[in-house]
Amino acid sequence: MTARLTRALGLALVHVLAQTLLGFAVLFWTDRTSSARIVALVLVVVCSMSWGFADGRRDRLRHGDRSETDFPILWLQAAVIGGLVAGAATWLCDLLPYLSLGRNSLLFELTAGAGWIVLLIYVPAMVGVGAGRVRANRVLARGA
């Protein structure tokens, strides 16, 4: 339970922080909005992928071919919880003055917004888990 909550809350925090920084960028750097959006997107994807990479590598080095953890389910649960938490937190942050995060409704943030966040967390994490296992295989093959 704590593994998925740690991942969910950590990546929700990363997403809300990226959205908040993007909101400030939209207000103060109107000419660089598109590049700020790309940076915010890359930040969330890189954090998710690197965490997945660490999970896959650590699991393969500890347990070899038999995995102790079901990473697709773990990361799916973390992504859904993180998406819902990030959607609600983004909506709350949008209520603050001088911070424009899109002015979306709570229903939008908990459905479409959360769905997008789930994809931003889950897909890169699964790519990271696979890459981490491949990297660990190379380390194990070199050491054997």
Automatic annotation (TrEMBL):
<feature type="transmembrane region" description="Helical">
    <location>
        <begin position="35"/>
        <end position="54"/>
    </location>
</feature>
<protein>
    <submittedName>
        <fullName>B-4DMT family transporter</fullName>
    </submittedName>
</protein>
<keyword id="KW-0472">Membrane</keyword>
<keyword id="KW-0812">Transmembrane</keyword>
<feature type="transmembrane region" description="Helical">
    <location>
        <begin position="74"/>
        <end position="92"/>
    </location>
</feature>
<feature type="transmembrane region" description="Helical">
    <location>
        <begin position="112"/>
        <end position="132"/>
    </location>
</feature>
<dbReference type="InterPro" id="IPR047958">
    <property type="entry name" value="B-4DMT-like"/>
</dbReference>
<feature type="transmembrane region" description="Helical">
    <location>
        <begin position="9"/>
        <end position="29"/>
    </location>
</feature>
<keyword id="KW-1133">Transmembrane helix</keyword>
